[in-house]
Amino acid sequence: MPLRIGPLTFDLPLAQAALSGYSDAPMRRLARRMGAVYALAEVLIDRFAVEAQSDTWVRRHLRLADDDHPIGGQLMGSEPTQFQFAARRLVQAGYDVIDINFGCPVKSAIGGCRGGYHLGQPEAALEIVERVREVVPPEIPVTIKMRRGIDESEISRERCLKILEGAFARGVAADTLHGRTVEQKYVGPSRWSFLKEAKAAFPSHTIIGSGDLFTAEDCVRMLAETGVDGLSIARGAIGNPWIFSETVALLRGEPARTGPTLNEQAAAIREQIGFALEIYDEPTLVGRMRKHLVKYARLHPDHEQVRNAFAQVSRLADIDQVLTTWYTSTVRTGTA
């Protein structure tokens, strides 16, 4: 089933979500190699996207490799005018899609009147959409990321649908919709029935589902149960890029795969590190990879011991030692 985001058409419905602190170029490139047809970079605060000038920051966020396309740049902020400046900078950097985050539930975002805070004020959210669409060239899609509301109240539901309707009317090409509320944060089930309701309400528009996608079976089931046009895989892809290839196999009618061997896991980790060496110095690389590595450990039969070993690495040589010690089998492990 194809996924369409404005003029962009993809032959598969699988996207790597924006994940603050995770979805950097190495993670995106590996996800893409495993079957993700589209990826979003880490969310950027609008004023940082405007003001940041350091070479390290620019190299990490604004220098895009040829194989990192098509890529979406996600912005989060509070001021419509600042969004415009930030969107222009992402366009200049070569991003293929500009995404607006109305879904982040973390305390710092809500306290700063950013992210999910905007779900409580549809007029302000739609002003941001309109301002961004004004300055982004027409051939570049503008998309939004939302949750199903601030809380469980009926007014939150109505505001969410109002933002959806207004955003599509203002030229938004797609909406990524998460089935949890802002108040839920990351706790409790994602309500997929709301995704189905939203897709039924806007059948001619692209809606990408998100929430509780941790296995290939979850991904196929969301598509079947909700009718959404695509999937945005977030936490389920951290340390498990095989979720993309396994979902592709199921969508093509192939037998379910039983998970990567330990050798395959080691190869993926080394590949991600190789990508990271193009961007980071060793201390930064190890600090960022450590978060990924403890997630990779979930797939290992001795996951607790391997997680603890990865948690203590401080040099590339330490990572290599863990891989040499624990990842020499060809046994398939299944996915967590």
Describe this structure in words.
- The protein is α/β, with parallel strands linked by helices and 336 residues long.
- The protein folds into two domains: 3-251, Alpha-Beta Barrel (TIM Barrel), CATH 3.20.20; 262-326.
- Helices cover 46% and strands 14% of the residues.
- It has helices spanning 25-34, 46-51, 55-61, 80-93, 107-111, 122-135, 154-169, 192-201, 216-226, 242-251, 262-276, 282-296, 303-311, 316-326, and strands at residues 3-5, 8-10, 14-16, 38-40, 44-45, 71-76, 97-102, 142-147, 174-178, 206-210, 230-233.
- The strands form two sheets. Strands 3-4-6-7-8-9-10-11 form an eight-stranded parallel β-barrel, surrounded by seven helices.
- Helix 1 links the parallel strand 3 (14-16) and strand 4 (38-40).
- Helix 9 packs across helix 10, helix 11 (262-276) packs antiparallel against helix 12 (282-296) and helix 12 (282-296) runs antiparallel to helix 13.
- The longest helix is centred in the middle third of the chain and has 16 residues, at 154-169.
- It is globular.
- The model has no long low-confidence stretch (mean pLDDT 92).
Can you count the helices? Answer: 14
Tell me the fraction of residues in β-strands, as a range: 5-15%
The CATH homologous superfamily of the largest domain? Aldolase class I
Mean pLDDT: 92
Strand tally = 11
- What class do helices, strands and sheet pairing give? alpha/beta
The CA-CA distance between the termini, in Å, is 26 Å
Strand order within the widest beta sheet? 3-4-6-7-8-9-10-11
Biggest sheet layout? 8 strands, parallel, barrel
CATH architecture of the largest domain: Alpha-Beta Barrel
CATH fold assignment of the largest domain: TIM Barrel
Helical proportion, percent range: 40-55%
Computed over alpha carbons, the radius of gyration is 20 Å
Number of domains: 2
Low-confidence stretches: none
- Principal-axis shape equals globular
Q: Briefly, what CATH class of the largest domain?
A: Alpha Beta
Helix-strand pattern, N to C? EEEHEEHHEHEHHEHEHEHEHHHHH
